[in-house]
Amino acid sequence: MMTTHRADTAPPQPERAEIISRTFQFLADGGEMGALMRAHDWTQSPLGPPERWPDALKMTVSICLNSRFPMVIWWGPDFVMLYNDAYRPILGMTKHPASLGRPGRAIWPETWSIIGPQLESIWHGEATWSHDVLLPLDRNNYLEEAYFTYSYSPIKHADGRVGGVFTAVTETTERVLGERRLRILRELAAQTAETRTVADAGRRALDVLGADNPDIPIALLYLLDEERGTIKAAGACRVPADKHAAEVGLDDDDDPWAVARVIRTGEPALVDYLPFRFGSLAGPVWPEPVKRALVLPVPRLGTGGTTCGAVVIGINPRRAFDDDYRGFLDLIVGHIASAISNARASEEERRRTDELAQLEARFRDLADSAPVMIWVSDPSGLCTWFNRPWLTFTGRGLEESLGEDWLAAVHPDDRARCASVYRSAFEQREPFRLEFRLRRHDGEWCQVDDTGVPHYAADGAFMGFIGSCVDVSDARRWEAALRKGREDLIRLNETLETRVAERTEDLAAANRQLLAQIEEREQVESTLRQMQRLDAVGQLTSGVAHDFNNLLTVILGNASYLERLWAEADDPKLMRRITHIRIAAERGAKLIAQLLAFSRRQRLEPRAVDLNDTIARMRELLATTMGGGIEIETVPSPEPWSALVDPTQLELVVLNLAINARDAMQVGGRLTVRTANVTRGDPMRPEQPAAGEYVELAVADTGTGMPDEVLAKAFEPFFTTKTVGKGSGLGLSQVLGFAKQSGGGVSIETEPDHGTTVRVFFPRAPLVDETEQAAGQEMPVGRPASACVLVVDDDDDVRHVTAAMLEGLGHRVVEAGSGGAALERLAARDDIDLALIDFAMPGMSGLDLAREARVRRPALPILFITGYADSTVLAGVRHEHILRKPFLDAELDRRIRAVLANKRAGTVDALMSIQR
């Protein structure tokens, strides 16, 4: 915000300036809250006017306002609240600015049972300190779980009496919630680490989730049964059995908990209106029922996106469901998925071990029951006899098995090996064992295990061998299957370790992403808090602008009247005082216009402006803003064109760019402001102006410059490289918006470590012929014909002053204090030539009245008078139909003459483009 001073403006009287200084010195600075305290109507507060506040309170308020730590003062037996900017976010969106100057019990009824007794105890003069105290706050339109660390200290008068309580407070909600959620995740990992079955993993997970956790008031776990194609409930936490199905079909779309859809699609689902669907489902901590639940898919690890179940988790009714909350629930699901995956691997390992034992048992049974052949061989290797099982097994007769004829039943590829083994055994008289393929009685080849041991007679003579031949075909097949099972189990264990390592890395990446999101969210929240403070200043400014302009209209009108009345009086002292009143009112009108421009509530009113003159008038303000360590250089254009621009917004652009340059230069450096006439070609970038003639305003610094990645985002709203609290990220975006709205554009030239130049282009004002300009400025000679003017304003003082001005200009006046009264005057009188209507009136607004009047009197000229109206509404009204408060006789006379001249010429402009 900027203030420009006229050279002939007299300073305030010394005695008045001294009174103002003494009254508000302790309220100086203090940011937004300092401004609010200075503008506050303290007559409605128990504290009374600030100049009457005790010295102890003034000193404490001064400390509070100029501190960046959240502080609040509770003064007097009613504990009236005073606080600083840093405390403002604690009040949320519903308690500010209504808390200022109000008793604490009225502002914090939901927590007064906790903090009230603590505050009362301080009257005994003893300080207290509380750490991470739970205070349920209704500050965002719901009862919110919040934690704070704060101290209460007595504020004493000079005589030792306690006058109030001083509080330094820090909100620790995010830290308390973060530690609580981290404990839950650690406990979940510890309890599910050693589970060996899926059912046990689900049961232990629900035990952890259901342990009086406010962030998980209710929970359900459903797992997919792939063999049956159904979904079974694995457990519930604080959800009665009649509120959820024990089994759900995979294709079921009527499931009220939406688990089937979540498992099919793999996408989360939010279930609303739980009390309406299931009745009251209360959590373990808060009395409020759970209203919403999030259903999250449980991924099957290592399968590329498939799901094995779904988790239903109720949402804490006393916390907003933000990104941190959602990230916490995602980590819970990740732990459950890992626990289920590990349990499935353990079950698979036990299953394969059981199959191996069954194979071994089967092999033993098979060996015991197989057909057996017992025979005795002489040294020639000829078989002497066989038992019946052998003959039955081979299907050969006794004659066919004598001698070496039995080798005919051996597979041709194995016969030579068998004969060699037998001959070697007889020669060495050593036991033998070999396997070969033998033809069974059904003609199929089977695998047999043949063994033989030397046999001696009683006298020690070698008799031959006694052997047995057993069919081991099935046993060998079982052994192969067993061997393959063991190999698969080894590979499974190796793969399991890899999958666990991959999942661990996935969880670590998720944690890192969550931390990055938290950091980004904190930065965005800080920026939004800054924007909320700026918007609060804008709302406060625009809200009181109308009333201030009404007051200034009355002051200026009466001051001008007194000046004319006493113009010839021989009393210079009285005339000087009247002139001071008028000049102060004009300065107040200028200040209100600048405040509205700063808050962006004032619509643009472009006119021909000399940029050289603007820069020259702002040099002193720039020097104050930049500080003594920065050199300021201005380079005006030798023959500047006039720029078509709103002068107030132009000053804000210069100040905005200068502040950006100051922050880029840190300490020292040079700021250069240039003006030039330029002719631009076709634009190369969207922020640059279209081809044409422009007046250029260039602001250059010797600061750090911008790298390419910063330059690419320079015009994005909220983008800033400054630390939190140093900038909102809206400066360049607002400059671009104003330049484009004015019909121009912006360009940036920058180099890292070599400074930045921002060039703003405003359209050249149209050239006006000197004779036409003189004719346009010439006022009609003599007094115009008397007209009958209807003056409509709900403020009696403003209406009377306006009527007096009109009567002094020779017009007849009809007054009305509301829209309804104005319509009655129009219906009763046909001689009304012009309607002068206040834009912002209660009930029927000036715009509504204008519409109704034009319906009844289509040719009636209408001129709006306004102290303030929303720029979006005024955007539909032509400039020549608006007379801004406060105004003097000359401006009123000029507007009335122009409107009456149009009427005499038969011209009635379209009043507005706004639809009903």
TrEMBL record:
SUPFAM superfamilies referenced in this protein's UniProt entry, alphabetically: ATPase domain of HSP90 chaperone/DNA topoisomerase II/histidine kinase (SSF55874), CheY-like (SSF52172), GAF domain-like (SSF55781), Homodimeric domain of signal transducing histidine kinase (SSF47384), PYP-like sensor domain (PAS domain) (SSF55785)
4-aspartylphosphate modification, residue list: 838
The record, for Pfam families, names:
GAF_2 (PF13185), HATPase_c (PF02518), HisKA (PF00512), PAS_3 (PF08447), PAS_4 (PF08448), Response_reg (PF00072)
Q: Which residues form a coiled coil?
A: 493-534
Q: Which GO terms describe its molecular function?
A: phosphorelay sensor kinase activity
Q: Which residues form the Histidine kinase domain?
A: 543-766
Domain PAS per the UniProt entry, residue ranges: 359-429
In this protein, which residues make up the domain named PAC? 432-484
| Main EC class the enzyme belongs to | transferase
Keyword annotations: Coiled coil, Kinase, Phosphoprotein, Transferase
| Reactions mediated catalytically | ATP + protein L-histidine = ADP + protein N-phospho-L-histidine
The EC number(s) this enzyme carries: 2.7.13.3
* Matching SMART domains: HATPase_c, HisKA, PAC, PAS, REC
Superkingdom, natural source = Bacteria
Question: Where does the Response regulatory domain start and stop, copy by copy?
Answer: 788-900
NCBIfam families hit by this protein: sensory_box (TIGR00229)
What this protein is called in its record is histidine kinase
User: Native species of this protein?
Assistant: Rhodoplanes roseus
